[in-house]
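Why Dolichyldiphosphatase? Reviewers of the renewal asked for a concrete example.
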Amino acid sequence: MAAVGECSIPVPWNSVSLTHVEYPAGDFTGHLLAYLSLSPIFIIVGFLTLIVFKRELHTISFLGGLCFNEGVNWLIKNIVQEQRPCPEAHLSVHSKYAMPSSHSQFIWFFSVYSFLFLYLRMHQTNNARFLDLLWRHLLSVCLLTLACLVSYSRVYLLYHTWSQVAYGGFVGSFMAALWFLFTQEILTPLFPRIAAWPLSEFFLIRDTSLIPNILWFEYAVSRAEARNRQRKLGTKLQ
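Here is what the prediction returned.
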């Protein structure tokens, strides 16, 4: 097995199916971390799915922030131009620059922004029950754990050094706080106007920024509508 953070290649490296993420052959931990390092791809797919089915402006803004964060990462990489720690281990990597780590910057942006959203955006609800607070804390711990594991995977798999991952996490966290502030103070007041555009109405784009707990709201509305329709159907059948 390859030593963590050292450029030694005693065994061949396998590639995760349909990707260029590689791990040492026969290394179960490396195999698991290789899949974890694909989290940004899964997150992007999840965002696109949410946008297609929900068409909510804040979700679109969140994805826009992630894309902007990636652009900042590309710019910093091409300015610093720091090489990868073990380029001979991964000949299929399309980018030779590695400072800061794009995976680390992405996942920390996602985690920190989600954390801020949970505690600063959804706190507007008056529902302070124990279970309501518990699931936020548990979700925050899961987000923090995912960010740490993805960052660690990039060092373990010899794609980055600890400093490259650390700087990526710092830049991603800073960009998340900045984008959250920009969304709350600049974009959110514009959302009702944007949702009223003819193009937005055509694509059924909506603004739910004034609803503190959208999950509970959608559940309550759909349940009430289902009961109302059931009641009307029962009246017609009489």
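The CA atoms of residues 224 and 230 lie 10 Å apart. This is the kind of structural detail the renewal will allow us to pursue systematically.
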